[in-house]
């Protein structure tokens, strides 16, 4: 059993609880404790990744390790931007996801050894893919938050005065900033894949390439529509969520079935 995973999950649980407390209290009590616990959670997470992925001979990249790596990127980016973009409402969800993943890691240990040091070009492709997915996942969480605020405003629900929520225009601006950055990273992913991967459309990999290309087209259309036609509202939420779902299927669909369900 991976006890280090439980240690990381514990610190994420503490940080998530403090984030919820701050979210519902404008006085921001325990904010310094939240910062310290978040730094410890991210630091222990980074140590776990180093010890469990980077081996003496190769890298261990089963699906749960990859998900943990993506969860680290998402948590790190969200924590860094939490004050400037008021992403505190997202942190309990992100930390909660990492807790669930570490519980799964502790109970479902697996190994998938690769040797990226022998193929640095492919390693760069994988890094672009992980960063693209992380950024676009944050964008999809922003989109859900935007949809929720729009729903309350349109249906004249009680204002969310007790929750520290970002202004609607700030949230929408941040959403498109993330989509643009994620789109650039996804473009680099596809470009490097076409150059460095010989079997990108081979059997077993074709669905990854096709779904990623469809997602790229959706994000390209969304950015074009927003900056030239002024698209806003529910349409951008739907397209963002669909694009993120397609990337999830592309990156993890077959591996989840093969590594988790079948094994």
List descriptors.
single chain; 263 residues; mainly alpha; 3-stranded antiparallel beta sheet; 8 helices; 75% helix
Topology diagram in text:
Layout: H1 3-23, H2 31-53, E1 54-55, E2 58-60, H3 63-81, H4 91-107, E3 113-114, H5 120-154, H6 168-196, H7 206-229, H8 234-261
Antiparallel strand pairs: 1-2, 2-3
Protein architecture, described:
This protein has 263 residues and is mainly α. Helices cover 75% and strands 3% of the residues. The protein has eight helices and three strands. It has helices at 3-23, 31-53, 63-81, 91-107, 120-154, 168-196, 206-229, 234-261; strands at residues 54-55, 58-60, 113-114. α2 packs antiparallel against α3 and α3 packs across α5. The model has no long low-confidence stretch (mean pLDDT 81).
Biggest sheet strand order reads: 1-2-3
Mean pLDDT: 81
Number of helices: 8
Strand content: under 5%
Q: State the end-to-end distance.
A: 18 Å
List the secondary-structure elements in sequence, H or E: HHEEHHEHHHH
Number of strands: 3
Radius of gyration, in Å, reads 19 Å
Structural class: mainly alpha
User: What spatial form do the alpha-carbon principal axes imply?
Assistant: flat
| Helix content bin | over 70%
Give a brief description.
This protein has 263 residues and is mainly alpha-helical.
